[in-house]
Design a protein that fits this description.
Elements: E1 2-3, E2 15-22, H1 25-28, E3 36-39, E4 45-47, E5 51-58, E6 63-67, E7 72-78, H2 83-92, H3 111-114, E8 117-118, E9 121-122, E10 127-134, E11 139-144, H4 156-159, E12 165-175, H5 195-209, E13 217-221, E14 227-229, H6 230-239, E15 245-247, E16 253-256, H7 258-264, E17 271-272, E18 275-277, E19 284-287, H8 293-311, E20 320-323, E21 326-327
Parallel strand pairs: 2-5, 3-5, 4-20
Antiparallel strand pairs: 1-2, 6-7, 7-12, 8-9, 10-11, 10-12, 13-19, 14-16, 15-16, 17-18, 18-19, 20-21
């Protein structure tokens, strides 16, 4: 059995039948796809059971920097690189565009799948291409930004789960010009002389609100911020005047803060068995020590029920869920 404890930031004691660590594309040519899943650091996954198959650990860490004539810079980053370490090195080199995503846990290759985002920036905003390896046909394929079908916490790689694709490289189009995006509270009222100051502020904000997975098991934001009709959001605003409402890319829709809804449903800082919600951010479910997978699922369902009973809004989990035979829909748990 292959121990998955180091490869899921929830820190759950789960195993896979077999594990394979790959460090280059040539390694993938020898992998036989038969009930396999791909992991980086497991920062966005929840294992509900031991996995009866092979886990492929992506450790491809190539990196190239290609300056363009117009101040743009093309970055070709191996999927196994740690995203925050990449951002730190790029800021040092004077290459900008990813600062708002500082301290997000996980690898470069995992980030396009969920289209990770924070503080007004989504990773898809600055991706030019994604290179993936098809484990069934044993060929590499390049996906343009449009083909990636980026949406809120979603992408082609998440919605087409039947295709056995492993991301090997992410190509970013970044800039030598520092143009900060400061739309979120805590940023909009400040000025930043350089990208390092912005990165430091974002790291400080995240550390204040979110637990360090190395110390407290968690997978970051467990739920998506719900998208609701704008009229419905305004009616809620009449009742809850401090409720934040954010614009949505979907016409006639608004985005609500899941953390706010969870807190108002009195689920912030609660503990059920060995799991609970974080005291500083209700959106985060944490392992309070030796938690079992079923405890995480039970708490998540309890939170969803409480929020629905209070607001009529059904929260949708953001984490990817894996059972004994592979990825499983939350509705089937």
């Amino acid at each position: 059995m292959f121990d998955l404890s180091p490869y899921n930031t929830f820190g759950l004691h789960v195993h896979a039948k077999e594990g394979v660590i790959i460090s280059n594309v040539a390694d993938l040519k020898r992998v036989q796809f038969d009930r396999a899943i791909i992991l980086g650091r497991g920062s966005d996954v929840l294992f509900t059971d031991d996995f009866d198959g092979t886990v492929i650990i992506n450790e491809i860490k190539s990196l190239s920097v290609e300056p363009q004539g117009d101040g743009k810079v093309i970055i070709r980053a191996g999927a196994g690189l740690i995203l925050d370490e990449l951002i730190a090195s790029l800021v040092e080199k004077g290459i900008y565009g990813l600062e708002n995503l500082s301290l997000i846990p996980g690898t470069v290759g995992a980030s396009p799948i969920q289209n990770v985002g924070a503080y007004g920036v989504e990773i898809g905003d600055v991706i030019k291409e994604v290179v993936a390896y098809d484990l069934q046909r044993h060929i590499q394929e390049t996906f343009t930004k449009e083909q990636c079908e980026f949406a809120y916490r979603s992408s082609y790689f998440k919605t087409h789960r039947s295709r056995p694709l492993i991301i090997t490289q992410v190509v970013f189009e970044l800039s030598k010009d520092f143009k900060p995006k400061l739309v979120y509270k805590g940023l909009s009222e400040k000025t930043f002389a350089n990208a390092q100051e912005l990165r430091d502020q974002i790291i400080s904000m995240r550390q204040h609100k979110l637990p360090d997975p190395a110390k407290v098991g968690n997978a970051g934001s467990f739920f998506k911020n719900p998208i609701v009709p704008h009229d419905f959001a305004l009616k809620l605003k009449e009742q809850y005047q401090d409720m934040p409402i954010y614009p949505s890319e979907i016409e006639g829709q608004s985005k609500l803060a899941a953390g706010y809804l969870i807190e108002k449903a009195k689920c912030k800082g609660i503990t059920h068995g060995n799991v609970g919600t974080w005291e500083q951010q209700a959106l985060v479910i944490v392992n309070r020590g030796n938690a079992f997978p079923h405890e995480v699922v039970a708490l998540a369902k309890y939170i969803m029920s409480e929020v629905y009973n209070k607001f009529g809004i059904l929260l949708e989990p953001e984490v990817r869920t894996f059972g004994a035979t592979g990825e499983v829909s939350w509705n089937n748990l």
